[in-house]
Amino acid sequence: MNLNQKELNLCREADLMGCDPEALVDLKDVQIDTTRPVAQRMEDFVRQVGNPYLFRVDGLIVKAVYLPGAKRRLTDALPYC
Prior knowledge:
30% of the residues lie in helices and 10% in strands. It is α+β, with helices and mostly antiparallel strands. The protein has one domain (5-77). Strands 1-2 form a two-stranded antiparallel sheet.
């Protein structure tokens, strides 16, 4: 799943309070092949979670904010990546 800029913006603007928790993917169910190149791993992640900004971790709803140039990776912050 490749998101265009408009789709990515819609994902970013998704309402945390208005989402259906049961419709969100839990990261413990996401499987990423770490031997694949980074671009392919990113595509796999987006394909599996649908919205890279809104998902669950152990049942807890997470709204992610990605900062350009950040030194900490998502895999450093979340245990299931």
